[in-house]
Structures are given as structure tokens and as C-alpha cells.
Amino acid sequence: MNVRHFLDEAGVAFDVIPHRATCDAQRMSKELRLSGKHVAKTVLLRADHGYRYLVAVVPACRRVDLTRASPVLGGSELEIASESELIEHCPDCDAGVLPPFGSQYGMRTLVDADLLDDEWIVFEGNTHDEAIRMRTSDFRRLECPLIARFADPSRPMAFEHRR
Questions:
Q1: Distance CA 147, CA 97 (A)
Q2: For 74, which of 16, 30, 31, 98 is 20 to 30 Å away at the CA?
Q3: Which pTM does this prediction carry?
């Protein structure tokens, strides 16, 4: 899925923000001089031993708390997917990039409520050197994500560890 094309077809206003290539959302937020609280980090989750996959979206300065996310998803056993699984599920993106639109890949999207407090959401497009900024209300309308509080409030991290 090309994020720009998807948003254009949906008639949604957005800004493309080119930047030096970064390898994760926290570094992208620093490159863009934005608080990590307002930049989305997307993580591919493997649920129930690979039976299904989900896209989890949290503030870039936080990490996904699998224990807190599990009850939101009916008690699913959750793991962070590997880099190779991410590449397999998002072949149209640079390795390691996952846009926050799981619906475009046949997956459910789970968003941490804290990320939706701002008027705008910023996230990686399809590459490591391009960010997209759009209204949070448009994101919610297009994606219809499941919203809950599942980011770890006590352990901010610069990146997720993938196996």
C-alpha cells in the first residue's frame, strides 16, 4: 500500500515531511524535532502463535506492553513479530517500516489512547526518510482502530526489540 496514494484516494489532507533516513520512530521524532509523545511508532504483533497479526500503534517514546494489550484483544497470546515477518506482511515498504493502517494489509489496528490526544498524528510513510502528518480525526475515521491504553507508562524506550 502506498500511503500517499491511499490518503489521496480517501480525499484526506496530509503533509509529507522529508527527512534524513532514520531507523525507528523515536529517532524520527528527534530528527523532526517533535516530541515522541506525538509521533506514532507502529509494531507488528503476532497473536496466538501466528494465527493472526495486528498492528499496534503507540507514542514513539513508549513501548508496547503485551500484558496490557492482551485483554483488549480477548486474552490473545501476543509476541512482537520478527523483522522477516514484517517484511513479509508489508512488502511495499522499506524493511522495518510499517504504516499505521493495518486495515490496508488485512490486519486490525490497535492504537494507544494517549497518541490520539493531539490534533495531529505523524508517522512513517513507506520509507525511512519520509514522514506523514495528518489530522488525528481523519486517521480515526479512515482506520477505525481499536483504542485502548496499552503502552507501558513506566518504561519508555527508544525502540522495540525484534527477534
A1: 22
A2: 98
A3: 0.90
